[in-house]
Design brief:
There is one protein chain. By secondary structure, the chain is mostly helical. It is built from 7 helices and 2 strands; from the N terminus they run H-E-H-H-E-H-H-H-H. Strands 1-2 form a two-stranded parallel ribbon. It is elongated, with a radius of gyration of 22 Å. The two termini are 43 Å apart.
Length: 139
């Protein structure tokens, strides 16, 4: 925060990852930036999605910087990602891949009306899904 209590954002580094996109590898890049700017004491919380590699990354950062805490106290989940997961669960249920495959197959086989009827039967969210898909198909 600035002296006038205004939130400020500054990009400190944008390092190229060498090797796999793993939590340990990402942590290495972040730790290097933190050490370069000598801001270990400024680290607060990490806002992340639910990917397992992010938890691994935060654990590695805490360990490498000798922060006396655990990842469960330092990880905040991104609200946008949580909302996205919630809407997917509402639209697709417990097994979204099977449901999406059935709809995609119906659309590919030319039975678009059946696919639209199926989504419409899901209520308001299904209708919204149809509208979004229609908009995305318009050039």
């Amino acid at each position: 925060m600035s002296s006038k209590y205004k939130v400020e954002t500054i990009l400190l580094g944008l390092r190229r990852l060498k090797g796999p996109h793993s939590g340990e590898n990402i942590a290495e890049a972040i730790v290097a930036v933190v050490k370069t700017y000598k801001i270990i004491d400024k680290i607060g919380y990490f806002v992340l999605d639910n990917a397992g590699l992010n938890d691994t990354c935060v654990s590695a950062i805490i360990e490498r910087l000798n922060i006396k805490d655990i990842k469960e106290h330092r990880c905040l989940r991104c609200l946008g990602h949580v909302l996205n997961l919630l809407v997917k669960a509402m639209l697709f249920g417990e097994n979204p891949e099977v449901f999406k495959k059935d709809i995609t197959t119906a659309a590919i086989l030319g039975d678009e009306k059946a696919a639209l009827r199926h989504w419409r039967s899901k209520g308001v969210l299904g209708k919204l899904y149809n509208v979004i898909n229609y908009i995305r198909l318009i050039p």
